[in-house]
Every structure is written in C-alpha cells, then in structure tokens.
Design goal:
Order of helices and strands: HHHEHEHEEHEHHHEE
CATH superfamily: Vaccinia Virus protein VP39
Structural class: alpha/beta
Strand order of the largest sheet: 3-2-1-4-5-7-6
Largest sheet: 7 strands, mixed
Strand content: 15-25%
Shape: globular
Helix content: 40-55%
Length: 222
C-alpha cells in the first residue's frame, strides 16, 4: 500500500472514534450541502449501472447510487468506516487505497468519489480509474475548494467556529483544526483535469458549487 502525507492525514482524521458520527458532522458542517453535492455526483454518473465508489466511507453516496438501481462496489482506507450498516446496499466492499485498486481491467461503467481528491496522488488514481473503467465509462471527483471574494471571509470564519467546536467534540478536533489548511493548499481541480487530459479522457467538465466551496470534475473514457 502506498503511504504519503495524504494517507497519513486521512488515517489521522477518520478513525473508530468518529465513524458513527460522520454523517451528522458532514451534514452540520456543510449546512446540509453534503447531500446536495452528492446528488450532483449521482446525476453525473447518469444511467451507468456498475459503479465503483472510491473512499466510500460510511456509504452515504453508495446508498444514493444503489437507490437508483445501480450495482455499487466500494473501497475505503479506513476499516472502521466500512463496518457501518449502510454498506449492506453495496455489492461488495474492500479496504484499500484508490491508488492501487484490487479490480480487473474494465470492470466498471463509472467511478465516483467524494472528498477523496485532496488526499491522494491524483495522477495514480486517474491511471487506475482508466484501467478499471470500460470504454464509454465516466469518472467523477468531488471535493472541497477554497472560495474567493466575500465567500472566502465567511469560509475562514466558519472554520474558526469549527475549531471552537472541536474543543467540545474531541473526536473531530484534529479535523476541525487541520482541514482548512489542507483545502487551502490543494489544487486538486486543476491537477485532476490535467491528469484526465494527459491520460486520454474526453469531455472533461469542471463545475463549482455553493459559492465556490466545492467542485465536481468529471470526464469520459473514450
């Protein structure tokens, strides 16, 4: 398994101590936008039936995909998150990294992820997605982005509040204290588009949501 700073951050952030509260925190911390963004991922996947979700976590996106009559396979780095009940809707789950996928060539019609891109070597992930995608398949990445203008001031203030909340919600203290800097340093949108273009994907699309606080990058394998 590849180990780098992104993996180390993910392992520190997501543990058995906060697995059960993840869904609630994700909803509260994003003012309910988490589900709205995931609905956009489902739209981007479209009618494709066999889907691999990278960093499937507690299975929120997997459940939404499965509810549209898709066959969904999930993989995640954190074992504690894979134990959640929502993964019963998945065809299968595996513990592992998105940079070395344990699946055969051309196994899926779509690959999707939420909140993964900032933690990984995106070129390696794109290469692996190309390998496991069938021709005509789609790849969809979603993650946080650092907004500009007035929204940047509001965003920074929001993380000040989250840091204060972390003093009381100790299982999330490290995330609330470090996540904003990770997002600020990440240029995952540009790097993902570059990697997709270099690998041969077509119809590369970048879309921003909620005043620039999140983005979705998608593309098709010819």
């Amino acid at each position: 398994m590849l180990v780098h700073d992104g993996h180390m951050s993910a392992r520190r952030f997501f543990t058995s101590a906060n697995a059960d509260s993840y869904d609630t925190i994700a909803s509260l911390a994003t003012f309910g936008q988490d589900l709205a963004w995931k609905r956009e991922i489902v739209k981007a996947v479209g009618r494709r039936n066999s889907v691999l979700e990278l960093a499937c976590g507690t299975g929120v996106l997997s459940s939404m995909l499965a509810n549209t009559d898709k066959s969904v396979v999930g993989i995640d780095l954190t074992f504690e998150y894979l134990r959640t009940s929502k993964h019963k809707v998945l065809t299968s789950v595996a513990q592992g990294t998105a940079e070395v996928l344990p699946y055969r060539n051309e196994s899926f019609e779509a690959v999707a992820s939420s909140y993964l891109a900032k933690y990984v070597d995106i070129k390696r992930v794109v290469d692996e997605c190309w390998r496991v995608l069938r021709p005509g398949g789609v790849i969809v990445f979603h993650d946080f982005t650092y907004p500009s203008g007035l929204m940047r001031n509001l965003w920074n203030a929001h993380f000040v509040i989250l840091r204060l909340a972390g003093r009381f919600v100790t299982s999330w203290r490290m995330v609330f204290e470090q996540l904003d800097n990770l997002i600020k340093k990440s240029d995952w949108v540009d790097q993902t588009s570059i990697a997709l273009h270099s690998r041969g994907f077509r119809n590369i699309d970048e879309r921003w949501y909620t005043a620039g606080t999140a983005a979705i990058v998608s593309a098709e394998k010819p």
